[in-house]
Amino acid sequence: MAASWDDLRVFLAVARQGSLSAAGNALKLDPATVGRRVSRLEDGLGAALFLKSSNGYALTGAGERLLPHAQEAEQAMAHAEDAVRGQGDRLSGVVRIGAPDGCANFLLPKVVSRIVATHPELEVQIVALPRLFNLNRREADMAIGVSRPEAGRLTVQKIVDYQLVLAAARDYLASTAPIETLEDLKAHRLIGYIPEMIFDKELEYFHDLGADRPVLASNSVAVQYQMARQGAGVAVTHDFALPGDHILERVLSEAFALTRSFYLIRHADDARVQRLSAFAELLVGGMRREMILVREALTGSAPSEDAGERET
């Protein structure tokens, strides 16, 4: 019996997620259905594709041999979807973006809202997680990172620079000791990442403040931001979160600012999928325009739009 795309899709999900339950969540199927689909595929091919252990589902030799063919079928279906839609400049379907939660909370909603306003048939999903995304496991169609990945069949494009700055609630600043130098921060509560849960070296910035650990911490920068807004202390936050916020005030603007960058990361095979490439172009352009507006609001000048070259 020839393998159907529906069964191959389930096979890929289990191979990437490592369990029936995780694959079911990704496919919006119950684990029992996922298990039956896998068994049906194995029966049809006459070979066991997975070895179940305490660590989950691992590919057998037959599963490893099937994997590249299933991935080719996935790409073929993506190309077929492009061809069938044929809507010209209008985008449709689902696109999932993985992003660190600072970008996902404060920057992407503005950019994505403008994109879907001109592409109403498009469904965009933003997965905000304080960790790196695994595109090889298809956790997302594309991801935004704060550093270039060092391995994998990926394409990487620099999007834009941003800054990490110090900020605190105006009420907090009015009721505590003045902050005129970095040394003065030692008398204040600092808010930042839980050190053991920092997921990227670009977020290790407390040594720049002359401090070892934050007094108040979270693995989510959005939580850190809300702590600062509640007057809990001084936080390191993204500059693009501050325009329009009438509670927070930037602190030591001349003495402290760290430049960081956002990168668009895609699976190399997806470069040939017209719909995803068109969306990626809109996303990158939208983020660059938004950061120009941010810089104008904060300083009256615009950042460079030198986004670098695409790398494979």
TrEMBL record:
<dbReference type="GO" id="GO:0043565">
    <property type="term" value="F:sequence-specific DNA binding"/>
</dbReference>
<dbReference type="InterPro" id="IPR058163">
    <property type="entry name" value="LysR-type_TF_proteobact-type"/>
</dbReference>
<dbReference type="InterPro" id="IPR005119">
    <property type="entry name" value="LysR_subst-bd"/>
</dbReference>
<dbReference type="InterPro" id="IPR000847">
    <property type="entry name" value="LysR_HTH_N"/>
</dbReference>
<dbReference type="Pfam" id="PF00126">
    <property type="entry name" value="HTH_1"/>
</dbReference>
<dbReference type="InterPro" id="IPR036390">
    <property type="entry name" value="WH_DNA-bd_sf"/>
</dbReference>
<feature type="domain" description="HTH lysR-type">
    <location>
        <begin position="1"/>
        <end position="60"/>
    </location>
</feature>
<keyword id="KW-0238">DNA-binding</keyword>
<keyword id="KW-0804">Transcription</keyword>
<dbReference type="GO" id="GO:0003700">
    <property type="term" value="F:DNA-binding transcription factor activity"/>
</dbReference>
<dbReference type="Pfam" id="PF03466">
    <property type="entry name" value="LysR_substrate"/>
</dbReference>
<keyword id="KW-0805">Transcription regulation</keyword>
<comment type="similarity">
    <text>Belongs to the LysR transcriptional regulatory family.</text>
</comment>
<protein>
    <submittedName>
        <fullName>Transcriptional regulator, LysR family</fullName>
    </submittedName>
</protein>
<dbReference type="GO" id="GO:0006351">
    <property type="term" value="P:DNA-templated transcription"/>
</dbReference>
<dbReference type="InterPro" id="IPR036388">
    <property type="entry name" value="WH-like_DNA-bd_sf"/>
</dbReference>
